[in-house]
Amino acid sequence: MAKITDLASAVGENLKSGDTVAFEGFTHLIPHAAAHEAVRQGTGDLTLVRMTPDVIYDQMIGMGLARKLVFSYAGNPGVGLLRRLRDALETGWPNRPEIVEHSHAAMANAYEAGAANLPFAVLRGYLGAGLAEVNPDIRSVVCPYSGERLATVPAIRPDITFIHAQKADRRGNVLIEGIIGIQKEAVLAAKRAVVTVEEIVDDLNSHPNACILPHWTIAAIAEVPGGAHPSYAHGYYGRDNASYLEWDRIAADRATFQDWMQTHVLNATPAVFEARVAALRSAA
Amino acid sequence: MTFTATTCAPGAFTADEMMTIAAARPLKSDDVCFVGIGAPSAACNVARLTHAPGITLIYESGTIGTKPDILPLSIGDGELCDTALTTVSVPEMFRYWLQGGWITVGFLGAAQLDPFGNINTTVVGDYANPKVRLPGGGGAPEIASASREIYITMKQSKRGFVKTIDFFTSFGHGEGGDHRQRLGMTTRGPSLLITDLAIWKPDPETKRFTVTSLHPGVTRDQMSDSVGWDIPYAPDLEETPAPTREELEVLRDLKARTKAAQESSKDAAA
């Protein structure tokens, strides 16, 4: 049964230092508000897992919260590189996280294996690819039927997964629509899951094939309108592409980055997200 | 060459525009295309809006048959989902649609490219101690092996067109010849490279990229100055037809709509 609570409690009661944590969202519905709360609580020594560690992981890595990063594409989509991650990997500032790098296909399969309670995933992947040489987790099996050699990767089983979704009902059932990404698998693969939602409603008004996570798969839910900004919530507000472009400038300089984090994260509350999307909401 | 009423005169278009339009032309209405962001996305949408209206565009965020009115900044912009035939989960996209063999053309860009179409988007320098840490492969390692063929589009530069790439993010033709088959790949691999200056195709035997067509006004000196390897030219070297007025108009409209949308997003955020 999902506990409906405030964001600070949802994060504080479920995320511990040293955890393996996934803040998932594939461009859409990225749980920015939850990540900012984790930064405010200073929860560190984390293994950060995500297919596309964009701005929120750039922020957490820049704040020195990451011990390790498991990922398949570390860029600011359409804009360029993640400058805080680059600084960490190229110069060790503020620390040099260990990295475990995959392809999207392998990460998707690894989450699915986690959700399916299997120890590893099998795919026809990494053929001729250099990652197999630098990531010892990428191995292979021989198909017992055809003799074909296939790639394997260990299942991803986070201690905790955070996602953002459109709606939850009062029992805690969660509805996700639009680009549904890897969120379902990331929740089902985790020991516990925390969901922020745009709104809590009496009735989800869903159709039978909607992506629903039943309340008993979720540990805690917090209502944070705008909680995906500058990512977006299909049906609520659009992607704030200008903010992604702006992040490139902010992250380019250590002091500018630290000032930004102080003002917009450390000294801010979850409620600021609603104001950020007000204009985007009316435009959507 | 003579210019028809519908063909643009030299100087009426940029090298970038020529690249995008040349990259759009080989796409067909019955292609199912896995689209990378940036130049590939522009080319695929120009193809859809001109000669290939039936083309199925697939972005790795899960959108199938998308018809965006503006070019997306990311592979998961709302526009892609809103205009798609359907949107599936990321595991389904990679397992069923890509690995399942439904993609006819994978369209990729590169940071570094070698003469055999091998792609690096991972690191410049040593993997453990990189000079420049790039975003990494994302969907590309499997797009490169599972799509029936691969088109690559990128601007020529000595930094990008290198003899030896620093990291094999996506396997092209490896060392050439039958290297793909030896690794168990049954797909064609890179079959076309479209740059701001030329069109390249792999030699049928060696699989080394050979220039088959120079864009209007491009000289061999310009080519040598922008590529870090010796350039083979096809004996029947052609000149790429200049953009038609329609192609250029469609591309410029698309870019203008995209720019306007990005600026209005900026106003909304301000």
What can you see in these coordinates?
The complex is a heterodimer of chains A (284) and B (270). With 284 residues, chain A is of the alpha/beta class. Chain A is built from ten helices and 15 strands. In chain A, the strands form three sheets. In chain A, strands 1, 2, 3, 4, 7, 11, 12, 13, 14 and 15 form a ten-stranded mixed β-sheet that branches. In chain A, strands 8-10-9 form a three-stranded antiparallel β-sheet, with helices on one face. In chain A, strands 5-6 form a two-stranded antiparallel ribbon. In chain A, β3, α3 and β4 (66-71) form a beta-alpha-beta unit. The radius of gyration of chain A is 19 Å and the shape is globular. Chain A starts with a strand and ends with a helix. Chain B is α/β, with parallel strands linked by helices and 270 residues long. Chain B is 29% helix and 20% strand. Chain B is built from eight helices and 14 strands. Chain B has helices at residues 15-24, 39-49, 78-82, 90-98, 140-146, 179-182, 220-225, 245-269; strands spanning 32-35, 56-58, 63-64, 86-87, 105-108, 112-113, 119-120, 123-125, 130-133, 149-153, 190-194, 198-202, 209-214, 233-239. Chain B has an eight-stranded mixed β-sheet, sandwiched between helices. In chain B, α1 packs across α2. Classes of the chains: A alpha/beta (284), B alpha/beta (270). Chains A and B meet through α4, α5, α8 and α10 of A and α3, α4, β9, α5 and α8 of B.
